[in-house]
Amino acid sequence: MSDTPLIHGADDGAYQEGREGHGHIKSFVRRAGRMSEAQHRYLDEMMPKIGIPYQPAPVDLAAVYGRNAPKILEIGCGMGETTAKIAEAHPENDYFGLEVHIPGVGALCKLIAEKLLGNLRIGNHDAVEVVRDMLPEGSLDGIHIFFPDPWHKTRHKKRRLIQPPFVALLASRLKPGGYIHCATDWENYALQMLDVLGREAQLENSVDNPSTGALAAALEADSAAGLAGFAPRPDYRPLTKFENRGIRLGHGVWDLVFRKR
């Protein structure tokens, strides 16, 4: 097993659904990283049981979980603390967590084993390809994207995950009334998320929001006006220790919840 996690990489070309190969700009790069012995052990023990391997064909989620229940996708689980807390608090839902960072997958495997979480599965693959190739249209009740890499340098913003083509793809996988919940602690990314989600015709904001047009420019000019488009943090999303620290330091956190029309 390699100590190199599959984190965030580079690939040029516009994303196109159905195109062979990646067909999209990667939002992640490969970086060296080490795993603890416990992460190695739980990864080896648990992934054959709860892992959902990538395949270029649709997967039957009801068969995977052995029941018909609401299905929630989380993109970017990190080290898994939030993902595990949400799954533990909501046993009525089934959760599919995607994470490309191998130590994070190992850490989440450990939490699943310790908490006996039968409603949580893990995928270790590029989220764009999993959503595009494996998840049928109208198969999801919700999508969580919490604190994705902000790629804060201007020249790197094209690598941000929340882009119009991917949001359109995500929306197509939601059932009517299903939701996309994004959260970020970077104001500039929050404004981009609000603009991109607001422009997607399949979605509507769960709170009152200026419609479209020059939304991002208007909000950049007067960021306080953007508060009308952001949602209060839903109770199901727990605060992380890093988020609590940021709040104490006066940093902002923005949640967005859009629903499928």
Number of strands: 7
Distance between the termini: 44 Å
Described by strand count, sense and barrel closure, the largest sheet is: 7 strands, mixed
The CATH architecture comes to 3-Layer(aba) Sandwich
The run of helices and strands is HHEHEHEHEHEHEHHE
Structural class: alpha/beta
On the 0-100 scale, what is the average pLDDT? 84
Contiguous low-pLDDT stretches (5 residues minimum) are 1-22, 210-216, 218-226
CATH topology: Rossmann fold
CATH homologous superfamily label: Vaccinia Virus protein VP39
Bin the strand percentage: 15-25%
- Would you state the CATH class? Alpha Beta
Helix content: 25-40%
Across the major sheet, the strand order is 3-2-1-4-5-7-6
How many H/I helical runs? 9
Radius of gyration (CA) equals 18 Å
Indicate how many domains the architecture comprises: 1
Which descriptor suits the 3D outline? globular
The gist of it:
The protein has 261 residues and is of the alpha/beta class.
Summarize the SSE layout with pairings.
Layout: H1 37-50, H2 61-65, E1 71-75, H3 81-89, E2 94-98, H4 102-115, E3 120-123, H5 127-134, E4 140-146, H6 164-173, E5 174-184, H7 187-199, E6 203-205, H8 215-221, H9 241-248, E7 254-260
Parallel strand pairs: 1-2, 1-4, 2-3, 4-5
Antiparallel strand pairs: 5-7, 6-7
Helix pairs in contact: 1-4, 3-4, 7-8
